[in-house]
Specification:
The protein is an alpha/beta fold. It has 9 helices and 17 strands. The strands form 3 sheets. A 7-stranded mixed beta sheet has the order 6-5-4-7-8-11-10, with helices on both faces. The protein has a 6-stranded mixed beta sheet with strand order 14-15-13-12-16-17, covered by helices on one side. Helix 2 crosses helix 3. The two termini are about 35 Å apart.
Length: about 400
């Protein structure tokens, strides 16, 4: 299919020759959608994987400001146990290289959980930035943190420097990687540190969950330990450590990650380091995804055949892909349900997106949970918290 946007150079080495592995596709909301798909490509020069045929950085910045899902609104902004464990591990990894007098900057701080963990260890000089006003407000209210609303592109308005900066779960979302790292690097003091944590695409095939889930609408850079180190070397950051990590998105869903601490140096390196792991790992992941998705399609086909009236709980990557690739759009869908207030009130396939509380008015409609990551939690909410009588269909439970 023809490209909709300007071709993108490799975010790791800036090479322009690439091979397409897969086209990811999504249905779109009536308002607020980022895009309807992208190409997963691998750089011919360095082997790094990334998303191509995607919008410009300004579009991404606007999306994260208006459609953030990181406020944990259903839990009053309180971080989840899995995120709390992640913050503790990051602090354990990085704090031996710092002292409480050091100044910390968390770019993309969400509701401030990471800086709050450092604060509990005596670090009082910190700043969190986030493109979502709701996130920045919650970080300040819940933890007493100093926060600033703004994207990475707006870091130039911050004049002070910091002894350590953090980009956790951020760089995989950024289109203009070089510009972003230059801005972050300018905020790091001489001999200061930068901690980056991103999903590890070279291990996607080892920790499989839902088909194609790790190729979400929001993830457009697919790093490995090799490609991350290569990128940071170009930006004058030398590795202190670079480790593979396991992150739990939920008790039944794992995201493999790589975490690296880098020290700012006075020289950059253009030496090419070839990533030989990501391409074969992604090819295995794609093959497994195709196999599992066929089983999901069979279950959806049965709902279509019986003309069962359903509500679909979840309007994330999982649902948006199924609406494009399966017969889900042919089902008798009464409504979509989502806990994220930024989705509520919008339309998907000309069908309204409603809050969970609306289900009390739909006692005879059956519920299809369209999420592998949150399937158990949503089922618990339906049966225990909301005490609904509706029959529930779970795609990942036989």
């Amino acid at each position: 299919m023809p490209s909709l946007f300007e071709p993108r150079a490799c975010p790791v080495c800036t090479g322009t020759e690439k091979k397409r592995l897969f086209r990811q596709t999504f249905a779109t909301l009536s308002a607020g959608s980022l895009m309807d798909g992208f190409d997963l490509v691998v750089c011919d020069h360095c082997g790094a994987a990334y998303g191509d045929d995607i919008p410009n950085q300004a579009t991404f910045d606007r999306y994260y400001a208006e459609m953030s899902k990181y406020e944990y609104a259903s839990d009053a902004g309180v971080t989840t146990p899995s995120d709390q464990a992640r913050f503790k591990e990051i602090a354990n990894l990085v704090s031996p290289y710092l002292t409480p007098e050091h100044r910390l900057l968390d770019v993309g701080c969400a509701t401030g959980g990471l800086l709050a963990e450092f604060q509990s260890r005596g670090f009082r000089r910190s700043l969190g930035t986030d493109p979502s006003p709701a996130c920045a407000s919650l970080a300040a209210r819940l933890h007493g943190l100093q926060t600033k609303v703004g994207s990475i592109a707006e870091l130039g308005t911050i004049w002070e420097t910091f002894d350590a900066a953090f980009l956790t779960g951020v760089l995989e979302h950024v289109r203009d990687v070089d510009d972003s790292l230059r801005l972050v690097g300018d905020r790091v003091a001489e001999n200061g540190f930068l901690y980056i944590e991103v999903p590890d695409a070279s291990c996607y095939d080892r920790h499989f969950g839902a088909p194609y889930q790790l190729l979400s609408m929001e993830h457009i850079n697919y790093f490995s330990p090799t490609s991350l180190e290569h990128l940071l070397a170009r930006h004058s950051f030398a590795p202190v450590f670079n480790v593979r990590l396991i992150r739990y998105l939920s008790p039944q869903a794992i995201e493999p990650c790589v975490g690296g601490l880098f020290r700012k140096s006075d020289r950059s390196s253009n030496h090419r380091i070839v990533d030989r792991e990501s391409k074969p790992a992604l090819e295995r992941y794609l093959a497994r995804s195709a196999e599992v998705e066929c089983r999901l399609h069979a279950r959806i086909d049965e709902l279509v055949r019986t003309r069962t009236s359903i509500v679909v709980w979840g309007v994330g990557t999982h649902t948006l892909r199924l609406l494009k690739t399966s017969r889900l759009r042919e089902a008798a869908i009464v409504a979509f349900i989502d806990s994220n207030a930024n989705y509520q009130g919008k339309m998907l396939e000309s069908i309204p997106i409603l809050p969970p509380s609306s289900l009390k008015d739909l006692p005879r409609v059956e519920i299809l949970i369209s999420s592998q990551v949150a399937e158990a939690a949503i089922n618990q909410m339906i049966t225990a918290r909301l005490e609904l009588p509706n029959r529930v269909h779970r795609l990942y439970v036989d």
